[in-house]
Design goal:
mainly beta; globular; 7 helices; disordered N terminus; about 500 residues
C-alpha cells in the first residue's frame, strides 16, 4: 500500500513467513530483474497550475478564521497528547518496558485524535492502512498517531522527529531449483534470506492544522535482497547493474515536503525520490496486505525522482501533477528524460468507494531503462464492516525496444537489467506492450487477524517485462495472525 497516516499505537517489526505459490507457467532461470528510468526546474509551472485550480475551489479565508483556530487547537492537541506508555529507568530499561507492555496488551490507549477528513473506512490494525491510500503525499487532514519503541524510550515520543524501522527475514519452500522468478521479490528458492532491514528518519508535515505553512522530510536506509526490485539507475545502482549482487543497499525514499494549508483543502509539494503512484502495494514490508507481491506490482515502476504536487480540493476530490526524470532513474543518469505524472482521486458512496486513475512517467516512450508509459487505475470498495476489496489494473508500453528474437542477424544492444522484446521475425525493434490486473479481497475477523485472497494476471505480450512472451496467472491466500501486538505472523 501507499504511504499513509493511520490511528495506530504500535507497529509491526518482524514478519516470519512461509510462502507457498502457485504460478503458471513454470518458470526457468532468469538472471536479471526488471527496474527502471528526472527533473528539470519547470516545477514552478506545476505549482502555479495547481494554485490557479485551487482558487476555483477555495472558500473565503475570512469565513474560516474561527474554524481554523479551532482546527489548529485540535491539531496541536493531537500531536502533543498521543498516548505513550509510562516508562522508568535508563534507556535500555525503558525500551524493554515498552515491549513488555505492548506484548502484554497494557499499553495505554487514548481517544482517537481529531481528523479534518471523514472517518476512515477501515480498521488499522489489523490492516496496514485505515484510509484509502494515494501515493506521493501524506494523508491530508489525518493526524500522525504512530508510537514507536525507540522514540518512546528515547524521549517519551515527544517532538515530531522520529527514527524507526524493521527487519524482515523470510523462508520459502519450493519445487524450483534455480529461481522463483517471475514471482515477485521471493526469487531465491529454498533458503532463508534477509528481505529487508530498514531504518527511517522523518519529520511529518502537520496536515490537520490550517493556519500556517509546514515542512517535513523523510530519509530511508534500505538493505536486503529486495533492493533488486527497488534499484533506480544512478542511485547506487552499480550494485545490481554492474555487479549483480544478491544483497545491496538502496537510499530508496529521500524527499522533502512543503505543506500549504491555505490552498483549497491543502496542497503538498514533494521534492526528491518518492514512491511512484499509484499502487495498492508498496516495497516496504508493513504497508502490504500480504508478505508476497503480485505480478502486477513486481513489474511496474517503483520510484521516481522529481517534484510531485498533491492538491486536496475537498473530501471527495484530489488531484496530483508531477514532473520526474522518469521511472526508476535519477536525473543525473543516462536515459533520464522529463516525464509527466497526472492523477485524480475521487471518493464516493459515503467513503466506501474510491477510484484513482493515473498516467505516470509519460514521455516519448522510447526504449530506455524502465521507460515504460504507465496508465493505471485503482478501485477500493468496502462491502460492510468485515469485507472490503482493492483492485488495480494497468497498461504499459515502450517503443523501439530492441528485438531479442532468436535467429535475428545483427541485433541491437539492450540496456543492463532492461529486457529486449520478442519482436516479429525480421524486426530489429518494435512496440512492447503489456497489461495486468490484480484483486485483493479481505475479511476482517478482529483487530488481530484477517484473511486476504489475491488473484493476479499479467500478459507480457512481447516478453519485455519478464523475459517470456506469455501470460502469467497466480492466486494467493494469506492470513495475518497478530498473536502479539508487535510481532506477527503473515503468510503468503
Amino acid at each position: 500500500m501507499s504511504k499513509s497516516s493511520n490511528y495506530r499505537t504500535h507497529s509491526a517489526v518482524f514478519d516470519e513467513v512461509l510462502t507457498f505459490t502457485h504460478l503458471l507457467p513454470t518458470t526457468r532461470y532468469v538472471q536479471a530483474v526488471v527496474k527502471a528510468p528526472g527533473v528539470p526546474s519547470t516545477a514552478v509551472v506545476l505549482i502555479v497550475t495547481l494554485l490557479f485550480t485551487a482558487n476555483l475551489f477555495s472558500t473565503s479565508a475570512t469565513a474560516q478564521t474561527e474554524s481554523n483556530k479551532s482546527q489548529q487547537a485540535q491539531s496541536e492537541a493531537a500531536n502533543s497528547t498521543t498516548p505513550s506508555p509510562k516508562l522508568e529507568g535508563n534507556f535500555v530499561r525503558r525500551l524493554f518496558q515498552f515491549y513488555r507492555q505492548d506484548w502484554s496488551g497494557t499499553t495505554p490507549n487514548g481517544p482517537e485524535p481529531e481528523r479534518r477528513i471523514p472517518p476512515a473506512p477501515l480498521n488499522s490494525p489489523p490492516f496496514p492502512s485505515a484510509d484509502w491510500t494515494y501515493g506521493g503525499a501524506p494523508d491530508i487532514g489525518a493526524p500522525d498517531t504512530n508510537i514507536y519503541p525507540l522514540m518512546t524510550a528515547w524521549n517519551g515520543n515527544q517532538g515530531r522527529f522520529k527514527i524507526y524501522g524493521w527487519v524482515e527475514p523470510s523462508l520459502n519452500v519450493s519445487t524450483s531449483k534455480k529461481t522463483l522468478f517471475p514471482e515477485g521479490y521471493n526469487i531465491f528458492d529454498n533458503r532463508v534470506v534477509l528481505d529487508q532491514a530498514v531504518i527511517y528518519g522523518e519529520r511529518l508535515v502537520d496536515t490537520v492544522q490550517t493556519d500556517h505553512v509546514d515542512w517535513g522530510f523523510h530519509l530511508t536506509g534500505f538493505y536486503g535482497v529486495d533492493y533488486r526490485f527497488t534499484t533506480a539507475k544512478g542511485w547506487l545502482s552499480q550494485q545490481l547493474l554492474k555487479h549483480n549482487r544478491q544483497y545491496g543497499f538502496d537510499p530508496m525514499l529521500e524527499y522533502a515536503d512543503l505543506y500549504l494549508p491555505q490552498v483549497a483543502d491543502g496542497l503538498n509539494i514533494r521534492v526528491g525520490r518518492y514512491l511512484s503512484v499509484p499502487d495498492i502495494e508498496a516495497q516496504l514490508a508493513p504497508n502490504n496486505y500480504m508478505f508476497s507481491h503480485s505480478l502486477l506490482y513486481s513489474f511496474d515502476p517503483f520510484t521516481q525522482t522529481g517534484v510531485l504536487t498533491t492538491l486536496k480540493l475537498n473530501h471527495r476530490w484530489l488531484v496530483q501533477l508531477g514532473l520526474s526524470a522518469g521511472n526508476d532513474i535519477a536525473p543525473w543518469a543516462t536515459d533520464a528524460k522529463p516525464s509527466l505524472t497526472a492523477c485524480v482521486s475521487y471518493t464516493f458512496h459515503d467513503g466506501n468507494d474510491n477510484v484513482y486513475p493515473c498516467a505516470s512517467g509519460i514521455n516519448n516512450g522510447k526504449y530506455g531503462y524502465n521507460n515504460v508509459q504507465l496508465f493505471v487505475t485503482t478501485w477500493y470498495h468496502k462491502f460492510n464492516k468485515s469485507w472490503h476489496m482493492a483492485t488495480e489494473a494497468w497498461y504499459m508500453y515502450q517503443r523501439d525496444v530492441p528485438s531479442v528474437t532468436p535467429g535475428l542477424a545483427n541485433p541491437l544492444p539492450t540496456e543492463p537489467n532492461a529486457n529486449g522484446a520478442f519482436c516479429s521475425a525480421g524486426e530489429l525493434k518494435c512496440l512492447a506492450p503489456e497489461w495486468a490486473a490484480v484483486n485483493y479481497l479481505q475479511r476482517e475477523f478482529s483487530a488481530k487477524n484477517y484473511i486476504s485472497i489475491r488473484t493476479d494476471f499479467l500478459d507480457d505480450r512481447k516478453g519485455q517485462r519478464t523475459g517470456f512472451a506469455t501470460k502469467n496467472f497466480e492466486s494467493h491466500t494469506g492470513c495475518l495472525v497478530r498473536a502479539l501486538p508487535l510481532s506477527h505472523v503473515q503468510s503468503a
